[in-house]
Amino acid sequence: MRKLTNIVITGGAGFIGSNLIRYIFEKTDFSGKIINLDVLTYAGNPYSLDDIDKKFGGSQYFFEKADIRDRKAVDAILVKYDVDTIIHLAAESHVDRSITGPEEFITTNINGTFNLLEAAKNYWKDFEGKLFHHVSTDEVYGSLGDEGFFTEDTPYDPRSPYSAAKASSDHLVMAYFHTYGMPITMSNCSNNYGPYQFPEKLIPVMIENMLTEKALPVYGDGKNIRDWLYVEDHNSAVWTIVNNGKTGRTYNIGGENEWENIKLVNSLCEIVAKETGKELNYYKKLITFVKDRPGHDRRYAIDCSRIKKELDWKQTYSFDSGLSETVKWYLTERSWIENVKSGEYLKWMEENYSER
Ligand code: NAD
Ligand code: TYD
After folding, report:
1. Domains of the chain
2. pTM of this prediction?
3. 98 pLDDT exceeds 70?
4. pLDDT on residue 353
5. Which residues does the annotation mark as catalytic?
6. How distant, in Å, are the alpha carbons of 70, 152, 193, 205, 331 from that of 210?
7. Distance in Å, CA 94 to ligand 2 centroid
8. Closest residue (by CA) to atom 33 of ligand 1?
């Protein structure tokens, strides 16, 4: 088990990052410092960690508003906190946005990752007791047909500007291991869901639109397949790798839980109907098939046997329990939703989704 002391988590104000910070403070015995390095784009919301900040702020938890593309800012943070571990999540993360505006995906996901690697290489020097963990996605592997699974040996074949930029960052991270001997670990995970997810991804879009009686936009024929994992299970896997993973190694993380989009949306209608006491049809009639996403990957499915065998990790949430937790959270945490909806997100939704 590694000795982790001062950990920078980039993108810690986003969906997975904020859940990761919460997970570390609430579910592990970590006693060091966590520095949340985040520039707060439309997707970053420090409000998600308000309670953690009240409890641990100034002693174990620190927030630094900084851009991973800003070398001076990153350098200063590494020095200020004598950082030994970086868990890198900061990214532009939404495929639809990468189609309408790819540039930020290139500068943040590729140049930003390069910048962090350079800053870490320069600050750490001999690499003793250091770790750079890169959080990535299964989308780098491309699209599957009806059969088969992505393994860690599947050749990269990204199809969207988002996945191409993530693939590029993965290659850079691996290059720093081979070329400079930087201690890195990497994870490629399937689709996450859970609390604090920005309402632009499938599950929170559907829940929010049901609660506000708007159309539920299902792309294409609704038969695209994703492998869903509860965000806490992703974070327990990341924490396991950061503590015990082998350097230079990639680990696939997945839910072993494949769902066609339309079946998932129908299930969500059932759960929301049960929770709100409304008729099932009140929600089902909102389902609307819309124009397909360009380059829409058909199927993702992860083989996560490596992390299970080598690091003894497993999922703990069933889809039923994870989805009902998530629906209950979106039903009760209305102030979080109002808060994120009042930002730049609304303007972007108007410009890009007005025809739906
Ligand atoms: P998110 O969009 O919710 O959060 C991203 C965070 O990064 C935000 O807080 C944002 O402010 C911050 N950020 C963006 N650009 C930045 C910059 N230039 N400098 C500093 N901070 C910046 O994303 P997420 O869903 O939490 O995903 C986190 C990571 O996990 C990403 O790297 C993503 O590729 C990866 N991932 C996500 C999923 C998923 O299903 N959401 C699955 C697998 C992997
Ligand atoms: P998304 O949550 O954007 O994740 P990703 O594209 O990274 O897998 O989308 C998940 C699936 O749901 C994908 O097949 C696209 C589809 N989708 C819809 O049908 N309607 C929507 O409104 C959204 C956001 C996604």
Report:
1. 6-195+229-255+295-318 (3.40.50.720)
2. 0.97
3. yes
4. 54
5. 138-139, 162
6. 40, 37, 17, 8, 11
7. 9
8. 93
